Amino acid sequence: MIPSIDNIEGAVKHSHARSRAGLYNTVWPLEHADTWRTQTAPIGGLPPNFDRMQLAIDTVQMDQPIVGATREKGQVFVMGGMPYLMNMYTKLYMTHSTYGRSDTLHQLLDDRKHVPCIAKLDAVTMQYQMRELTVGRDRAVNYPGGMLMHANGFVYAVAQTVLYKIDPDSMDILISIELPLVDGEQPGMATSTIYNGLQVLGNGRIVTKCFTAQNMGKGWALQIDPNNLDILVSKFIEVQSARLMIDETEPGAAFAYMPTMSQSRRFRITDDDFVLDEDWTATYKEEEATSTTWANGTLFMKSHVVFPDNSAPGEYITEPLHFFTHPVTDPPKVLAPHVAVSDQPGINFWKVGGDPYSNADHGTMITFTPTNELIAAYRLYKDGTLEKLWEKSYFISASPAIVTSTDLLYINDYKDGHDHFVVLQLSTGEELAYMELEAMETTMGIIFPGMNNDVYICSTETGGPVNSGIFNRIYLK
Predict the structure, then answer these.
(1) Reported pTM
(2) SS3 75
């Protein structure tokens, strides 16, 4: 029996509670669904056995909408206006390239036209209220930030190295705090600091980290009081991105998984520290190797941590996108690469996604490369065995979404000058729906299920002017 959308709490408690401690009781409380970064929700989205002929689309123009979340049944929150490097990725994808130069001075000046913002939308009518996030306007590059719906009822967002606490009813900014920058000898090091992901512990503390766009390989890991935004713990560590994943095995026993440029690592989170678990550390890449770029976007699959490489463009990339499976117990010291979905060089800004919930003995994970226009699903068993379930050709760039109760996978497909919304059966790869969108570029945004028999997709349209992006709602008539 599929859980009712009105019984979110029951559905979450069924199998997702461990990965949603500290988050608001909703279908999609942060940009990758939960603290395990699975991109998987227990319920929501389109109903099972939906009639594809009854699907409809409503849209609203926004400035490069990129991440979103649900809260109450009638509420959706979306962040946008953060273009730094996103047009570079869009161009790489659309030219099937693995290397492109970082934003030019002209592009950086053009970025000034965009202002980080968070919008609260009526989940059905798409009417919205916008709040600009301008405290960090001249503090750091305008790279995509992150947000979460906290169990305490408030909305938290980070943009341009500033953390905001927002009232979800009035959309007033209650408190904001400037997060520590990464200082260095290189010119512009501090202003290239990026915080783009927020996480939360069961005790309510917010966890985030940063790195620099100059790839210094160091950054701050922080624990923050959700009430007054005081920084409770700060530690300068080796990092390779601003993303992190958390698993809290039981209250007070949490690990933050944060790879470096060459190693897969985890830190035990204590009340006053992040403690490196040196026994668990494993090497996935030779430090000086240039045929691939570093790992990114860890996914927790209960028995293993999974992450891909080639998350950044590289001038000398000659190898395909790989993914790595790092056992939680009895880990090796060196991880073996698995070709993700193509033997050709490829990159992916996003990451692997997966369902670690539906079966106690294995999980289903998906991986894709926009530059190769391929996606594949694998079954990952407890003993580390991998079994490919299916492979399909789609030009995917959005961060996909999975709903376990309906066995549905939502992706995009850029073809013939337009982006498209696609629904697949997760277990088989069967195509269930295919709809043309207004968007004329492949997107850098995410897809996420709603709570009113609907799904949302953020179309960034990075090559267009301010407010040329599109936020789409796909629903049943």
Answers:
(1) 0.97
(2) strand
